[in-house]
Amino acid sequence: MTTIERPPPRVRFDDAQIEMSHGAGGKASRRLVEGLIAPLFANAVLAKLSDAAALSLGGAAYATTADSFVVKPLRFPGGSIGELAVNGTVNDLAVSGARAEALMAAFILEAGLPTTTLRAEVEAMAEAASRAGVAIVGGDTKVVEHGACDGMYVTTFGVGKIDGRLTLDPRSVRTGDRVLLSGPIGDHGITILLARGELDLEADLSSDTRSVWPYVSALLDTCADSVRWMRDPTRGGVATSLNELARDSGLGIVLYEEAVPLRREVRGACEILGLDPLHIANEGQFLAIVAERDADRALAAVRAVAGGEGATLIGEVRAEPARQVLGISAYGGTRVIDMLVGDPLPRIC
Amino acid sequence: MTTIERPPPRVRFDDAQIEMSHGAGGKASRRLVEGLIAPLFANAVLAKLSDAAALSLGGAAYATTADSFVVKPLRFPGGSIGELAVNGTVNDLAVSGARAEALMAAFILEAGLPTTTLRAEVEAMAEAASRAGVAIVGGDTKVVEHGACDGMYVTTFGVGKIDGRLTLDPRSVRTGDRVLLSGPIGDHGITILLARGELDLEADLSSDTRSVWPYVSALLDTCADSVRWMRDPTRGGVATSLNELARDSGLGIVLYEEAVPLRREVRGACEILGLDPLHIANEGQFLAIVAERDADRALAAVRAVAGGEGATLIGEVRAEPARQVLGISAYGGTRVIDMLVGDPLPRIC
Asked: Which end of chain A, N or C, is more open, meaning fewer C-beta atoms within 10 Å of its C-beta?
């Protein structure tokens, strides 16, 4: 590791206290990380601010990632905190071009937590890890008093070797590149929102939590040298991930709004609640920027994997509007799509 | 990673709910991990149940470790949660024979946490990392509602290359080997207890939080091939670490009770509170089992490093009492020293 001089913070963090929005994955989260944490931890690796850090270990390039999971409720249709804790980490590595090789899990448990609840989550983690072909090699357990955490929190670390055929860098993105999305958006966030039972709203919907590695792997086997950038659009959704890309690449991202795959139930819930599906968290999807020449082959490769049938090319990279995401409707209308602001959906993962 | 068949659990975990003692690092913690978590996560690496896991990355042997920190209060004489989060992880790697190369940090923050509090801890982490010569390369930030965590929790992950001169294995321990302790015990645990202000007790005492790598490094440079086993006696204290060694080696550990270095203030507080200093957590000490032939050289090497002057040979390995730790007083009296039971000092790290 090479430590570099602390760079001047590009972003100021003047907020007097931490708010829910600082954990939502959108603008406020970015300000907290860029304006406070990153400048203090300044070094060459963290300066990239990606979800996973690349390290040279034993002469090979490895991706590592860390994520805390505080989702509420602990169990929801299609998944649970334990499953998210594994899949979320596997997916952070996948979009870094790495198959997860080993995970570690650290538990913070509330005194009084029923053992059946803990056992169910440890089992969910073991099963998700088994499905993803990754070992959980160690961890830690702490207990806090009843009331000092909300049931249980899980922090997962993952490590995996980066596919040597791949060079991911937002600065390698070029105009004409296509935006590939692996499937319908918003299932996870809306499922969690409904599972809390606070809204008078029901829908036949499940979280999309899954490992995206099989799809990423198919993509890399098909055209690794045409893949410029990948991201799993979790907190803050597709809009936030693509805004980060627009900013980091200096280019404009144009979305064909009607092309974005979206279940009827998610669209309906978002309309009623005044939410933009592009801001809703996903836990089993990924975005890839692929060179135009290979975009159709890339799409076919992802669609050929079971569960990848919903993959779609949802947009393209243009020179303008620089550093912005622009939605274009079928009728030619346009709108600027911003990052998530505030936290309409707290504790989604 | 090779996944092995799930071994039959040697320990049953029948408790209906999680209690503070399950997080205290003693017997109850061990039952939770061995009886519930490890059998479900079963694989070749976790089966060793050490604080750090050894992984082969890029053909080299690396140690990895994960720890959550939930210490209360966040700041205390001599340190703070951020400093512990770095030193604790650096030390877990050190006693695996690895200098920490990279850390990741995941924060769970409570809404309403003053930014000054967070900034102070991020600064403490950056400073501790700088002192230990390790980079913090990434992380995560989640925010939960006010009341859903106690200020902030930090989970740290670390990785470092294992010194190739070293083979650490409790099964390599032999009768006649000596027990080396790096300095006085109990400072951290008693400092935290007093810092809570719940007891009508005061003492001029500071946490011993520090990186133990300089001492471990000196030891390895002197006699790496005579070092059989190392451990940082945190939760559960020296007694718990040595009981784990006794169990894993099948041998008996004899402690010369009067030789164990102990500050007057710690001894006094323990007497008043009815605690055994051997059960109190340390955050800047380590234990090493060293072959008899090199024990004196090993001691001299650790003592020669600034801050290592308090190192002492506190005991030896005998065939009997097998799988137990036995204290011997200067007058020839003996007592069996057990692992920590219950949780007299919750949230110590």
From this structure: N
A156 and A176 share a domain?
no
Q: What is the pLDDT of residues A16-49, one digit of tens each?
A: 999 999 988 888 988 998 898 888 887 766 666 5
Residue A61 belongs to a domain: yes
Is pLDDT of B187 > 80? yes
| Residue B54 confidence (pLDDT) | 83
- Residue B147 neighbours by CB distance under 10 Å: 12
pLDDT at A343: 83
pTM of the model: 0.94
- B236 shares its domain with B309: yes
What local confidence, expressed as pLDDT, does residue A5 receive?
Answer: 39
CB < 8 Å to B108, chain A: 68, 70, 108, 153, 155
Calpha distance A79→A128 (Å, rounded): 10
Question: What was the pLDDT predicted at B50?
Answer: 65
| Residues of chain B contacting residue A100, judged by C-beta atoms under 8 Å apart | none
Amino acid A4: pLDDT: 33
Residue A38 counted as domain residue: no
Give the SS3 label for residue A253. Answer: strand
Does B48 map to a domain? no
| Structure tokens belonging to residue A105 | 């899990």
Instruction: Read off the amino acid at residue B318.
Output: R
Average pLDDT over residues B168-197: 96
- For residue B198, what pLDDT is reported? 83
The 10 Å Cβ neighbour count of residue B72 is 17
Domain final position from B162, B184, B204: B162
State the residue range of the domain holding B320: 170-337
DSSP H helical ranges for A35-186: 38-40, 81-94, 115-132
Q: How many domains does chain A have?
A: 2
Domain final residue pick, A162, A188, A222: A162
Amino acid B57: pLDDT: 85
Q: What is the DSSP letter of A47?
A: G
pLDDT at A6: 45
Residue B4 has pLDDT above 50, yes or no: no
Which residues are bridge partners to A328 per DSSP?
A: A256, A334
Q: Å from A259 to nearest chain B CA? A: 32
What residues have CB less than 8 Å from B323, skipping those under 6 apart? B246, B247, B250, B251, B252
Residue A132 to chain B, least CA–CA distance (Å) = 13
Three-state secondary-structure class, residue B127: helix
- Do A152 and A176 reside in the same domain of the chain? no
B274 with B321, same domain? yes
The CATH number linked to B325 is 3.90.650.10
Do residue B109 and residue B217 come from a single domain? no
Three-class secondary structure of residue B280 per DSSP: coil
ipTM of the shown complex:
0.93
Give the chain A residue whose CA is nearest to the CA of B141.
Answer: A23
B176 and B155 in one domain?
Answer: no
Q: Do B18 and A112 touch (CB under 8 A)?
A: yes
Q: Which residues of A touch B86 (CB under 8 A)?
A: none
- With respect to residue A183, please indicate whether it lies within any of the assigned structural domains: yes
**Out of B33, B53, B66, whose CB is closest to A106?**
B66
Residues B152 and B174 in one domain: no
Shared domain for A188 and A255, answered yes or no, is yes
Task: Tell whether the model's pLDDT for residue A284 goes beyond 80.
Answer: yes
CATH code at position A71: 3.30.1330.10
The answer to whether B205 and B267 are in contact (CB under 8 A) is no
